[in-house]
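Schema walk-through. Below, the input block comes first and the output block second. Nothing else is stored per chain. Lengths vary across the set, and this one has 93 residues.
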Amino acid sequence: MPSFPKYFHQFAEDRSNPDTQAAVGVKSGSQYPDIRAETRPTVNTATAAYWLSRQQQTLRGWACHEDGPIRPRRINCRLAWSVDDIRRILGVA
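--- output ---
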């Protein structure tokens, strides 16, 4: 399995590129903010999945089995994914 920082680096660089958007299934006018501009300490599963180019169910599996590259916090029975952990995986400062 390739390392996550190397594998995801290509997606973290520029999501405004139409070729990149087509490759990861991003629709124009996306509701997700750029990870570099995010100010919240945690995000929901949908946002984390978008940034990591994974399905939401994949992240839920990581949380359930505790075997993914990051683990969420559980807040009021909801999953909260650390923005700092996601940035570390993507190699974004």
